[in-house]
Specification:
By secondary structure, this protein is mostly beta strands. Helix content is 7%, strand content 48%. It is built from one helix and 13 strands. InterPro entries: EF-hand-dom_pair (IPR011992).
Length: 192
């Protein structure tokens, strides 16, 4: 049953591009859908996928004037929130740009209610990934170009300052730098 629910959530999470998406009132396999207007004027479309009375997926929809005909109002998804294991805590939050593409994605991989990483995307590809510790502090940042890792920056001392760098050439680790005196610059380099 758990895998069926996770599969359904996967369909809901990935099934919509967000572009010109309109709120709907469909029922999802015995679950329920509720549409409400938020204080900021956006629409909240809430899905109870597994029928347990708790919201599993929320789509945040904004209205905007049609660029070709300002008298027509269109709707697009700007955010999607998912509680994968029905514990009331968000496990995935995706923010969408005006074209309906994911631009930010926060993910809780161990389902403890704390996000483990944030992906920054451009044209559907991850360009930066921030990894968090249990308190939500950034401990490492990975940078990508055309899907290939370029650089990693880490805080190994917990002072919220980068003190460790990895540089990659064609996806292969090339060199490692370490800041030994907390001045923000590498003092030693190790080549691979």
């Amino acid at each position: 049953m758990k895998w069926m629910i996770l599969g359904l959530v996967g369909v809901i999470v990935t099934g919509c591009s967000g572009a010109d998406e309109r709120p709907d009132s469909e029922l999802i396999l015995g679950g329920q859908t509720k549409m409400t207007r938020a204080k900021d004027g956006n629409w909240l479309q809430e899905f109870d996928v597994d029928g347990d009375g708790r919201v599993d997926v929320t789509k945040v929809m904004e209205e905007y004037p049609d660029p070709n005909d300002p008298s027509v109002t269109k709707t697009r998804m700007i955010e999607k929130r998912v509680d994968v294991n029905s514990d009331g805590k968000l496990n995935i939050v995706r923010k969408y740009n005006e074209e309906g593409r994911v631009m930010l994605e926060d993910v809780d991989t161990d389902l403890d209610g704390v996000f483990d990483f944030r992906n920054h995307l451009d044209a559907g590809r991850i360009v930066k990934k921030e990894l968090y510790d249990a308190e939500g502090r950034i401990v490492a940042t990975r940078y990508y170009d055309k899907g290939e890792i370029q650089r990693v920056e880490k805080d190994t001392t917990g002072d919220q300052k980068v003190d460790y760098w990895e540089f990659y050439e064609q996806g292969v680790l090339d060199r490692i730098g370490r800041d030994l005196n907390a001045d923000g610059r590498a003092d030693t380099w190790q080549t691979q």
